[in-house]
Design a protein that fits this description.
about 120 residues
Amino acid sequence: MSTLLKLEELAMFMVSYILTIVLGYSWWLFWALLLLPDVSMLGYLINTRIGAYLYNLFHHKGVAIIVALSGYYLSSDGLLLAGIILFGHSAMDRVFGYGLKHIDNFKNTHLGWIGDGKN
């Protein structure tokens, strides 16, 4: 992944953190909830298909935006915060090269293979 794309993802991550604070949440709440979307990896204990489906559901920026907009529209602070956390977490993962998963292998992502040098 090019440096420019990583910087773009880093900017999205920072915007989600700043948005959390601007909306009146404590600074530490963002950090406390940031890794929560990775609970979706538990699907890999069943099989790679379910694991990839759950992982992608919780790491797709479009889903994050829909959740955040739903929270805004429904005046649900919890839903709005969940969408912001999902978005920020997804951006953070992209900075580190973790993309949406293909069903054949956890390391096979839309950004290429993780770690093995198969990119």
